[in-house]
Amino acid sequence: MCAGFHVTRAYPANPESLWKCVLGVPELVRCPPMPNRMAQPSSDSRRNDCGQVIGDFVTNLNLTPEAFFWVAQFLIFLLGWPLEWTEITIIFLPLFLPLLAGFHVRFPDNIATSPFFFGIMAAINQQTSFLSPPVAMSAYYLKGVVGKLITLNEIFQGMYPFMAIQIVAMLVLWIFPQLAYFLPDLVYGAGSR
Q1: What distance, in Å, lies between the first and last C-alpha atoms of the chain?
Q2: What angle do CA 32, 82, 158 make, to 5 degrees?
Q3: Distance (Å, rounded) from C-alpha 23 to C-alpha 182?
Q4: pTM of the model
Q5: DSSP 8-state secondary structure symbol assigned to residue 14
Q6: Taking the CB of residue 2, how many other CB atoms lie within 10 A of it?
């Protein structure tokens, strides 16, 4: 599915071909990507063409690494409403990673292009989206456990402080990214980046 992303080539992506790819996403999602499949080019030309179209579309937007980072995080947040973390991680994050790699080639010292940092922020972001209305799956899980003792509105009101804490944590990590790298650097050394 991701073999078609070539962010170094700049073809003009027309809206019609992008729309065909968007409509074709359910077909691509039926077969979740596997690690060995991602490393090899697909024989299905439509998968490669859609990857190329999406990659070209994002490349032609001329986003800065920071803008791409936050747009991707916003999309992950929106996807967290209807989907579980497994679907986002297995299906949608592989769509972002080749684009992130393209930005990393051009901006290797920018924290917004670090795959590790992107993954840490995506994990916190998914936790935040699970707490936020309108869907907030964790609220419905809790409501199923407590029954009629607490209303759904009371559960949502109790979740807002935790959402705020996670948003502040994301901002603190963005300002001080060395916090995310502290433990890996301690265990594996700073050269493991």
Answers
A1: 26
A2: 135
A3: 42
A4: 0.69
A5: P
A6: 21
